[in-house]
Structures are given as structure tokens and as C-alpha cells.
Write a structure and sequence with these properties.
The complex is a heterodimer of chains A (412) and B (188).
Chain A (H helix, E strand, L loop, with lengths): L6 H5 L1 H21 L5 H6 L7 H22 L13 E2 H18 L3 H9 L3 H20 L4 H6 L2 E3 L3 H5 L3 H26 L10 H19 L4 H17 L4 E2 L1 H8 L5 E6 L3 H6 L6 E2 L5 H10 L5 E6 L4 H12 L5 E4 L2 H9 L7 E2 L11 E2 L42
Parallel strand pairs in A: 3-7, 4-5, 4-6, 6-7
Antiparallel strand pairs in A: 1-2, 8-9
Chain B lengths: L11 H6 L9 H19 L6 H15 L1 H5 L2 H7 L10 H18 L15 H21 L4 H10 L3 H18 L3 H4 L1
The chains are: A alpha/beta (412), B mainly alpha (188).
Chain lengths: 412, 188
């Protein structure tokens, strides 16, 4: 079994909401227990007197991070099915600065103001009311800078690993070490500005730090699963679908899907550039096998239940490899063009005089047609006539599925 | 013999609500516990934690009840409540309700349920309420602009190593530290 679970499909919506409610309960309980219902304690962070905010926040981040990536490394948790906040550089930074101002003026952040209000703090109540007003104001003013907000500095699902080109474990380890150093610095600041007696601090915290650093080191050792390892894990379930030809759609189905407005279809041509230039289906994106991994983060981040990917190659061999790669990486709704480009031309290019079928059997995954020129998608059968092909018969195989409720992460 | 009846709650009802006040848990323990909650959220559901997104949905729910046409013509609101869409039909709504109940439960459990106003010694309660409201409004505006608050962006995106979330986190601290000196009268 792999996590995260598809809660809605497993238990139905009420139970799913109950689980989220219980997570929220634990969240609120821990926040209040840590003193986050008290605005004075929160604000003291910014005068170096009481660094609880930093300790709890970074403590939580590194704990969750180490556990997440350990589970990902062990193959129990699928990172591609976890919501990673997409990066919108400038709106994130400007919004963050504004939030910082709100934090020091109001003494809370939204989550902490909720527990403050719930435990009877009147300033918490006023903060929540203010927060609702600010949210309302944003909804009403967003239209004036919609384009900036939607696009400025947009980098999609962009992780520190993608940015620094360093293995995940190394990033995890470095962040844990930096957090421990920050805790040490925070304690020194508290001693200086808040007159805290560090000798009274529990000695156990040193062991905690060592434990976390060791676990982070373990994450490096375990490493992250490769695409091949991920495939091995799902192969038992997915191989039968391949063998039973459940995912190889007929050219006619692909053609009809191109005209289906309910489906957002992306056609990926995984052949080499020479073949692609000779002939391809109109609207195809050229994505040779070697460049496919770079496209996966975007496919994962923008998965939607009506988004379908169809991979094509000359016959099915390379396309099947691409299908395995994408399926292993949890890209939903991926299909193979059955018979490949050869099958497509068989179906739609019979009457095209310039394209000739070779008489001898072509080697595997090679074009079986000879083209007079590299016209790409300017052949007739690159974009068959919809009137002539109004009636087509095929066995429909495309089934739309969504792995989980992905209405957004944290604060979507 | 005098009996101090006023300070000692006698009835069971009073005893139930006035539990002995406990100190806050150690920040590192709080961090580890919060981290486990955050991990559990990702592990089970694939989503992290959040707060402002849930509040946003309550605001839009009210707007949709009062002025549905306005909601249907505003792109930002459309996504949450356009047409027949129910803005409260989202995982973050039970999460936020749970957070409120959890905060209340913890306050009760540790004897910290108390109607009070926490403020610096040099300002009045009314001033504190005013600044809490103003700060909340600024925070709410900024949180929606940044597509998430401290929980939804900093904690959730921080733990899953999103570049944007880490930059966001530094921006929040930078904004707060930059202004802290000028508003020190509020807190010290």
C-alpha cells in the first residue's frame, strides 16, 4: 500500500472530512499547548526575548520533513502525490512581507489567532475578525492586479532539489543542521535579551538534536527511489493493464478525443527529432524519452481529472517505455496510441498519395512509411478532416480518474 | 472559622471549567509534536495544514449568500463559489473547525480558558483590540496574496521543500523584524 491515501474513494466524503477535522483538532491542541494562543509570547519572538515561535516552527518543519522523506525513501509515501506549494516568487515575497507587518502589529498569524479566540482571548477574536476583513478585501481588490498575481515569478512545483540540483537527502540533512544551529543561536539570544537561564533547559534536547541529525543522515543513505524502483513497485498492478491492452487506445479514439471539449488532451511524441520532423500529429508536443523526466513535475502539479496524456512513438515500444515512466511517477490518465504513428497513418492516411508504405517489414519501432519531405504536421493525415471522419468506430478505453482531492495545499 | 468560598470553585460545573493551570509545553516538544501532526496530514491525505484558506471560504460563503452575482463575476471568488459550487465543500473547512475545537480543548485541559486580553503594559485594552484588528486585516490580505499563511505556506511548503515557501518564510520574518523596533511600544 502506498500513501497518501485516496481518502474520498476509500471511505467517502464524511469520513474524509472527519479525518481532516481530527488533524485540525491535533493541530489546534498542539498550537495552544505551545503557548501560541498568547500574543505576547508570539510577539516576544521579534524582540529576541522568547524564541518559541522559531523553535516550534522550525522544530515542526524539520521533524515533518525528516519523517516525510524517510517514508518517501523507503517507498511507502509517494512524493509526487503530495501537495507541494507551487512557487509564485513575487506574490509570495510581497505577501510574506505584508504578513510580517501584520504579525508584529496584530500579534498573531491566522492559525494561532484561531486557537487564541477558542481559548477566550479577546485580542484573538479581534484578530480573527480583522483577518476575515483582510481576506474579504483581497478578494475584492485582486482583480486590479490579477495578471501580476497569477503569473509573476511563477515557477510551478519547484523544489529546493530542483533549484540547487542536489540530492534530496543532502538538502534534508543541511536544513536539519541549519535548524539546530538556529536553535543554538536562539538560545543565546534568549539568554542575552530575555535573561533566560540556559542551565535549566532540559539536557534531553541535545539528544533530540542528535537523533534528528542522525535520521537526516539516514535519509541520505536510503536515498530516493528511482523511476525504475517506483515502476517495480507498481508493476504488479500496471503490467496486466498493459498486457490486456487497457491503455492502448485506438487511433479513432485519439482522434475523437482531440475534438472532445470535456477533455484536456496533451499528445506527447517520444520519438527522436528526425522522425518527429518527418511526420507528426498536429498539436503534438515533442518530448523525447530523455527529456521526459523534466516535464514530470509540471504534469504532477497540474494533474486534473479531465487531463489526459497520450504518448506516441512509431509503433508502441518507445511509447510503452514512456508510459511506464509516467505511470511510475504517478502522472494520472496516461495512455498509449495503439499501433503508434504507423497505426495512425494506416487509419487516416490510406488515400494520401505522397506517403507510401514500405513493402518489406520495417524493424521494430521504425516508421513503415516513406515521406517525400519532412513536412512535420502539414500532411493531410496529420490533421484528418473532421467531416470525413464524423463516424468512427472504436472501443473506448479512456477513463478519467483523480487520485485525490487536490483543491490546493495548505491554504488553497 | 472563615471559609474562603469565593476563590474555590465548589460546584462540579465550576470545577469542570476551572482546571488547574498548567505551564506551556517546552518549545522543542511542541515543535516535534506539531511536526508529527504535519507529517500525519501529509502521510494520510497528501495535503498539509492550513488556516487562512479555510477562513477565506467562510468569507466567500457569506458573500455568495448575499451577492451571488457579484461572486460569479469576480474571478478570484468564482473559483471557490462560482455557480452552485459550495465554498464550504473543501477539506480545509473541517480542518479549521477542528483547529478551533482543538485550541478550545487544549485551553480547557490546561486550565487556560480565560476571557482576557494579552497586551503590552503600555497600551490600553481598546488600543490592543484596534491593533489586533488592524494586524489581522493586514495579515489576512498578505496571506491571500501569498497563497497561504504561516501554516499553509511556511509549515507545509517548508516541510515539502518548496522554494517559494522557503522564500515566503524569510519574507515574513524579514517584514516582522524590520518593523518590530518601530512598534515596540505595543509589546514592551
Amino acid at each position: 500500500m502506498t500513501f497518501p491515501l485516496n481518502l474520498e474513494a476509500l471511505f467517502g466524503k464524511p469520513i474524509m472530512f472527519l479525518i481532516f477535522g481530527l488533524i485540525g483538532f491535533a493541530f489546534g491542541f498542539v498550537l495552544e499547548s505551545s503557548g501560541f494562543g498568547n500574543s505576547k509570547k508570539l510577539a516576544a519572538q521579534f524582540y529576541f526575548k522568547d524564541m518559541t515561535v522559531l523553535k516550534v516552527m522550525f522544530g515542526a518543519i524539520i521533524t515533518a520533513m525528516v519523517l516525510i522523506f524517510m517514508m518517501v525513501g523507503l517507498g511507502v509515501l509517494d512524493y509526487n502525490q503530495i501537495w507541494v506549494n507551487p512557487t509564485y516568487l513575487w506574490s509570495g515575497i510581497v505577501g510574506g512581507l505584508i504578513m510580517g507587518v501584520g504579525f508584529i502589529v496584530g500579534g498573531f498569524c491566522p492559525g494561532t489567532s484561531l486557537v487564541a479566540m477558542a481559548s477566550g482571548k479577546i485580542d484573538g477574536l479581534f484578530f480573527v475578525l480583522g483577518g476575515l476583513f483582510g481576506i474579504f478585501l483581497f478578494g475584492e481588490t485582486e482583480r486590479f492586479f490579477d495578471s501580476w498575481w497569477q503569473t509573476s515569478g511563477y515557477l510551478g512545483r519547484f523544489t529546493l532539489m530542483d533549484w540547487l540540483k542536489v540530492p534530496t537527502g543532502v538538502i534534508v540533512f543541511a536544513i536539519v543542521v541549519m535548524a539546530v544551529l538556529a536553535f543554538f543561536a536562539a538560545e543565546q539570544l534568549e539568554k542575552h535579551f530575555g535573561n533566560r537561564d540556559l542551565t535549566k533547559e532540559p539536557k534531553k534536547r541535545v539528544f533530540g538534536a542528535i537523533a534528528l541529525i542522525s535520521m537526516a543522515a539516514l535519509v541520505i543513505l536510503i536515498g530516493m527511489p528511482t523511476t525504475e524502483q517506483k515502476w517495480d513497485k507498481v508493476a504488479a498492478v500496471k503490467e496486466p493493464a498493459l498486457a490486456n491492452r487497457e491503455v492502448q487506445i485506438e487511433p479513432a479514439e485519439l482522434y475523437k478525443t482531440l475534438y472532445d471539449n470535456r477533455i484536456k488532451l496533451t499528445l506527447l511524441d517520444v520519438r527522436d527529432e528526425a522522425d518527429f520532423n518527418l511526420f507528426h500529429i498536429r498539436g503534438t508536443q515533442h518530448a523525447p524519452l530523455s527529456e521526459l523526466p523534466a516535464l514530470i513535475p509540471d504534469m504532477v502539479a497540474h494533474s486534473a481529472s479531465n487531463k489526459v496524456y497520450v504518448v506516441t512513438s512509431n509503433d508502441e515500444a518507445t511509447a510503452t517505455q514512456a508510459w511506464k515512466m509516467l505511470t511510475a511517477e504517478s502522472v494520472p490518465n496516461v495512455y498509449i496510441l495503439g499501433g503508434g504513428i504507423n497505426g495512425w497513418i494506416d487509419a487516416f492516411g490510406k488515400d494520401e498519395p505522397t506517403i507510401q508504405k514500405v513493402t518489406f517489414p520495417a524493424p521494430e519501432d521504425q516508421l513503415q512509411y516513406i515521406f517525400p519531405a519532412a513536412l512535420g504536421d502539414r500532411y493531410q493525415c496529420s490533421d484528418p478532416n473532421p467531416i470525413e471522419n464524423e463516424e468512427l468506430e472504436f472501443t473506448p478505453k479512456i477513463k478519467l480518474q483523480m487520485k485525490r482531492d487536490k483543491s490546493g495545499g495548505g491554504c488553497g | 472559622m472563615t471559609v474562603q468560598t469565593q476563590s474555590q470553585p465548589t460546584s462540579r460545573w465550576q470545577k469542570f471549567w476551572k482546571r488547574p493551570t498548567k505551564p506551556y509545553i517546552h518549545p522543542y516538544a511542541g515543535g516535534i509534536l506539531l511536526g508529527i501532526v504535519l507529517f500525519a496530514a501529509f502521510f494520510l491525505t497528501g495535503n498539509g495544514l492550513g488556516a487562512s484558506g479555510g477562513l477565506n471560504r467562510f468569507v466567500v460563503w457569506v458573500q455568495d449568500a448575499i451577492a451571488p452575482q457579484h461572486v460569479d463575476t469576480t474571478p478570484y471568488l468564482l473559483k471557490m463559489a462560482g455557480g452552485d459550487k459550495d465554498p464550504l465543500d473543501d477539506w480545509i473547512v473541517p480542518l479549521v473547525i477542528g483547529t478551533l475545537v482543538g485550541g478550545f480543548a487544549s485551553g480547557w485541559f490546561s486550565g487556560r480558558l480565560k476571557i482576557e486580553t494579552n497586551k503590552g503594559p503600555r497600551i490600553s485594552k481598546r488600543q490592543r483590540w484596534f491593533f489586533a484588528f488592524a494586524g489581522g486585516a493586514i495579515m489576512g490580505y498578505g496571506a491571500r496574496m501569498a497563497r497561504g499563511c504561516t501554516s499553509g505556506q511556511a509549515l507545509s511548503g517548508g516541510a515539502t521543500l518548496s522554494v517559494g515557501s522557503w522564500l515566503f518564510m524569510f519574507a515574513v520574518f524579514a517584514g516582522a523584524y524590520a518593523l518590530a523596533y518601530f512598534v515596540r511600544r505595543l509589546w514592551n
